[in-house]
Amino acid sequence: MNSTNSNVSKWPVSSRIFHWISAVLLLVTWIMILLYDNLDNNLYIGLHKAFGISLLCWMIARVLNRVLTKAPPPVPMPKWQLLASKLSHFGLYALLIAMPMAGLLMSVYGGRPVDIFGLFQIPVFVTPDRGLARFYNDLHTDIIWPTIIIFTLIHIGAALYHQFVKKDNLIARIK
What we know:
Structural class: mainly alpha
Distance between the termini: 11 Å
Oligomer: single chain
């Protein structure tokens, strides 16, 4: 650690890598659906799905990493903030697993396999059902998506609050 961060306990390197690659995968997945919505090119929906499944696999590995690695001690903060931090992190992890799962179920219940970057396909492993496809579509787009946005904004807002208001150098822990 350098001298400006000498009082900060960092997350293990593996946790930092999982954090930032999760953020990049989420951002790329969002960009792909925005491109698809605005350009109506099936390439982008295919990439959206492939990156979404990549995020699902990455998040499963991230949860395993989180269970197997020791977290640094929390920075000093009121107990309610520590509880809010733990709940919001748990919520983000759950949502980042539920979102691609709902998307996958939407596709396969719609009778569509999911192509993973042209390398292989996740086949339709259920009996197609338009009603269930619609249910998972609604869950994916109308419930989980806005909830992820809210939790992401809370996460970023809390990090910025710690960095610029409390000035406790919290962000240095994940850099």
